[in-house]
Amino acid sequence: MKDDFFMTKNERVLEYLKSLPEGTKISVRSLAQALKISEGTAYKAIKDAESMYIVTTIPRAGTIRTKPKNKQIDRLTYEEVKNVVDGVVLGGENGLDIELHKFLIGAMTIEEMVKYIQPGDLTILGNRDNAQIAALKAGAAVLITGGFDAKDEVKNLANQLSLPLISTTYDTFTVATLINKAINERMTKKRILLVNNIMSTNPIYMTTKQTVKDWKMLLNKTSHTRYPVVDDSGALVGIVTSREVAKADEGDKIGDIMSKNPIYVTETTTVAFAAHLMIWWNIEVLPVTNNKELVGIISREDVIKALQYMAKQPQIEETINDTLLKDFRAEKIQDGMKFFGTIPQKMVNQLGTVSSSALMMLMCECGVSSVTRNKRFDAVVDNFLVYFIRPLQTEKSIEVNTTTIDYSGNFCKVEISVIYDGTMIAKALMSLRLLKNKKLF
Length: 441
Known about the structure:
flat, six-stranded antiparallel β-sheet, Arc Repressor Mutant, subunit A, CBS-domain, single chain, five-stranded mixed β-sheet, 15 helices, Udp-n-acetylmuramoylalanyl-d-glutamate--2,6- Diaminopimelate Ligase, Chain: A, domain 1, alpha+beta
């Protein structure tokens, strides 16, 4: 942790908020008075603290110090459901941050309905007081459609159980559609892994005042050959590897021989972008910073394992790439692959033919897939050159041929052609940078 002298004003406020006991009520004015800062600075710090889950703001209750937690990105909270359906909270505000397990429509008798309810569910109901009470007692929040209010008895029960009671003007079908869409979008975000999900939080590092002799001692202890370098305040200022040490004497200081201005990522950088940096610059490890302070490190092995794991996870919502390739089957050939299928009808342009951008994306995806399916590494496009594209109707059976024409080191070149009814309608050449899982450090 940084010394107070090196901390920014915003960081000092965040540290103060972390030190408060759980349940402490916080306001902009009280925070500004306690720390003798402007209300603008206090407001910004509270918003930053909300994003870090240090505090939670509850409508009509105020901002409260809460225990920090890692929010699961694959689940919605009742608060988010309320926002999705433009709802109004009638009771149970203290339970808005609870995660939604599933939702169900209570269009049945009360006795049958409670058989399907589990704690953490959301029950969609109309103006049925007894059903609302039964759902709350079963541990589920209640969403009332049609813009109806609720009786005081129901509101009091929701407050007592800390289960949200929400009213929306939308009908049941619209509400179910909106919630399902929000769940689908949230599930798709599972693919977007962040660096803080995979990084090592206790990185081995060196300081600028240490010497080459210290580097050799670390080498014998850890077998690593590269280390991030920090200054007296803990800020990342460089990286030192065996390359720099080979040209130095044992008494030379690390700060004098290190490579300055190292490439780094932050905790909120996506793993996919970190992979691109590693491929582009041929880097095996990346330091992770928070306001320039070194907080972790990720390796090439960490990135590859994460990407392989996420590729195996089921996703509800399809991406554009999934939509393009879902109707294609692949066949391995010498020096490449063949893909057979049809382009979806929705990939149409204003003239009624296949969009050129969709066709280029298809060729690009087939080129990448032909390389990564046959090898145990990932790849990113370095260059993509299209020779020509001719008009093509949608939903026509086509053949995409990919041929690897050059492969050396960390690079690969692939030639791609699209065939329809025996005629070549598009041709391209792409080069890729490869992310191989070789020995680290």
